[in-house]
């Protein structure tokens, strides 16, 4: 490999100038993720990894078979159409109508992406002008901050605060965060990492604010089917929001195929067209054969969606109870894969230090919530556990964590 301190021919002798950092300034703060560090720690210590949110069992056998069939039949092995295969776009539109009563034209109002991750990136790259402000609910999913930075935007966190065992959004705080430079609100409900599901009143107030201040809303709803208490309401269904909302979802969490990276947006034609302009130069297209399989998955009967949710609810309960018994204060999540806990009842206050020593102390890996904050001190005593794992794994984790109590 060429090195930076080899002087080019003709350079004067002397010490090399201090090398310019390779990673550009926009991304300097996003050099490494905590997930890499914690997953390495899990492997090195033989720990149970409840850090990263992916299921340890695959999605439905029939959907895997559908992907194999598509591959064998030569469907999707070459570049699929830029907006996604028509079968999947139609299935996404049907799904939005079936579950949320929203109608979208599969040809002009649906765009298939490389997971929700690309949808988020493409939406922000398409809609944010350098210097625009983007409001995001803190703590937030880690890709939001990086994508806002890549778009040259300025992130404005509005903090969800723990009150009486649940995380709450302060609507006055949200209203105060809007300025003349605000371009959009980046919402996430059900919310990772807190498990909060925004209710009807809160969404109505956010919608009113967006209309009043003429803001766009990008709504990440990848956990739309994983709501254990209450119901998921898409903000696009509120008055005035159909034309200003980009709704994002994906097959990863709903069908336990996080490796397939099939995601989508639904929005008004002008918004889809704008996002497609960015998306076509990111991946152009992806996951051809998997798109056909996910089209079938979206048409699975209600029993599939109910079963997934009920199974995860039981896992939430198992882990939440275990964590409570081990001495954590537990914020019982209404949705998602994750439970947030407060470590202060265990006599601890620094989530980073706690997570770095937990593998050695009891063979479990988890994530400090501080990584999801701009205001790190707000997240300091909280850690997040994933419960999208086999029951036997969760039971073993609970058993190991019970050592903390002694
Ligand atoms: C997992 C996750 C994503 C990423 O979804 P992919 O389809 O795997 O790209 C996006 N947003 C949130 C909140 C997530 O938890």
From TrEMBL:
Can you cite an annotated GO cellular component?
Answer: cytoplasm
Q: Where is the composition biased (Pro residues)?
A: 1-19
**Top-level taxon in the UniProt lineage:** Bacteria
Q: What is its EC number?
A: 2.6.1.17
The annotated pathway is:
Amino-acid biosynthesis; L-lysine biosynthesis via DAP pathway; LL-2,6-diaminopimelate from (S)-tetrahydrodipicolinate (succinylase route): step 2/3
What's the top EC group for this one? Answer: transferase
Q: Molecular function terms in GO for this entry?
A: kynurenine-oxoglutarate transaminase activity; pyridoxal phosphate binding; succinyldiaminopimelate transaminase activity
Q: Which UniProt keywords apply?
A: Amino-acid biosynthesis, Aminotransferase, Cytoplasm, Pyridoxal phosphate, Transferase
Q: Which residues form the Aminotransferase class I/classII large domain?
A: 48-401
Cofactor section: pyridoxal 5'-phosphate
**One GO process term, biological-process aspect:** amino acid biosynthetic process
Region annotated Disordered sits at 1-22
- SUPFAM superfamilies named among the record's database cross-references: PLP-dependent transferases
Subcellular location as annotated: Cytoplasm
Task: Provide the catalytic activity annotation.
Answer: N-succinyl-(2S,6S)-2,6-diaminopimelate + 2-oxoglutarate = (S)-2-succinylamino-6-oxoheptanedioate + L-glutamate
Query: Pfam families under this entry?
Result: Aminotran_1_2
Q: Which NCBIfam families match?
A: PRK07777.1
Assembly notes? Homodimer.
Q: Of which family is this protein a member?
A: Belongs to the class-III pyridoxal-phosphate-dependent aminotransferase family.
State what this protein does: Involved in the lysine biosynthetic pathways. It catalyzes the transfer of an amino group from L-glutamate to N-succinyl-2-l-amino-6-oxoheptanedioate (N-succinyl-2-l-amino-6-ketopimelate) in a PLP-dependent reaction, yielding as products N-succinyl-l-2,6-diaminoheptanedioate (N-succinyl-diaminopimelate) and 2-oxoglutarate.
What this protein is called in its record is Probable N-succinyldiaminopimelate aminotransferase DapC
State the organism of origin.
Streptomyces inusitatus
